[in-house]
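INFO  loader      accepted 1 record
INFO  loader      residues=240
INFO  predictor   begin
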Amino acid sequence: MNILVTDTSAQALTVALKTDSFFETRTTESRSLQHSERLVPTVVELCKDAGIETKDIDLLACTRGPGSFTGLRIGMAAFKGMAFALGKPLVSVSTLEVLASCVPCFDGAVVTVIDAKKQRWYLAAFERGSEGTRRIMADTDGTEADLVKVIEPYGNVLVTGPDAEAFAPKLRDLFAEKTIIVDKISSKAVSSALLELALRKYETDGADDIGQGPVYLRKSDAEIALEERQRKESGEKGNG
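INFO  predictor   done
INFO  writer      dumping tokens
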């Protein structure tokens, strides 16, 4: 089975292709705005190196968020377009679940984190055992305080994700008695986890519904500004 995956939720663009005899991951470090310039050329390069054409792809998969608003829109829009043009299924997976699945078995809580800016973080928590990953906290737009009750029962906590090093000290300040470990994960580990989760999801639930879009957890700055402008205009009309 030929599976093409991409993660565009952060600054690094990751694209990977797996066939029966080929598996390679390509990563480009850039701003998310540049993902649109590199995504399709990278797909073409991978197909060429694997000796297949895009029409030979059997399944497409991408992360659906949370993460960069712009990056997620670019990734999902590009892969939806490819899926439609090629007549192939598309599956999307939680970014934070993919990050947790990169971690080997761990005796404790696994916290996945992405910087959401404005002194907030996209967070989730999991148990990672020999039988797989069990979620113990939903994807959340929050702070370290949201993790207090979730990780209280665990003596060890592993923090992973692109912004784990920046977030871990906040947990250490809250839990001086716990062992807080930071785990760095490679782009190949991310693509491997995404491949595995997407294939399992496809075999269990089938392809995404056509209406599935990125998961943002919060409104974009543009949406907030629009709502504020509409409130002001409504207030001015009411006073008039």
